[in-house]
Design brief:
The structure is a single chain. With 147 residues, the protein is of the alpha+beta class. It is 33% helix and 21% strand. The chain has 4 helices and 8 strands. It has an 8-stranded antiparallel sheet, covered by helices on one side. The protein is globular.
């Protein structure tokens, strides 16, 4: 079960990510929340166990769904910022989370021209695209980094 501190750290993590466009460090979150670095690390670990965040091998933030801390083929521009999303699903989740219009650009997996979609007032400007998930949703957390 997540604690009040976990909720505070989660909120601070998302706020930093959204406001800056980059993933926060443990030190960033410790400074904002007043918690120790060890408490932030422990909280991030609990949040990762609860599938709220994904940490990399060094326990740095890798994903705060729908945002990615690493460069991906999914780029979302909205609210005057640019973000990386983890997948097509998450790319659509960024403007939904922020309640704003967005321009989404995705690398074409076949090596062609990047795919572009706009979201305005919650509506996609195209209906000719298909999103394919190679892994069933029920299995995403088996290897969320691959998914």
């Amino acid at each position: 079960m997540l604690s009040r501190i976990d909720g505070s750290i989660r909120l601070a993590t998302y706020r930093h990510f959204v406001q800056s466009g980059v993933a926060p460090s443990v030190a960033d979150i410790a400074r904002v929340t007043g918690e120790s670095a060890s408490e932030v690390r422990a909280s991030w670990s609990r949040l990762a166990d609860a599938h709220v965040l994904v940490l990399d091998e060094s326990e740095a933030l890798r994903m705060a769904m729908p945002l990615s801390a690493v460069s991906t083929g999914m780029r979302v521009r909205c609210g005057g910022r640019a973000y990386f999303a983890n997948c097509a699903w998450d790319a659509l989740g960024v403007p939904a989370m922020l309640g704003t219009d967005a321009a989404i650009e995705a690398d074409d997996p076949l090596g062609g021209t990047p795919l572009r979609v706009r979201v305005e007032d919650g509506i996609l400007d195209r209906d000719d695209l298909l999103v394919h998930f190679a892994v069933r949703a029920a299995e995403w957390w088996t290897d969320i980094g691959f998914t």
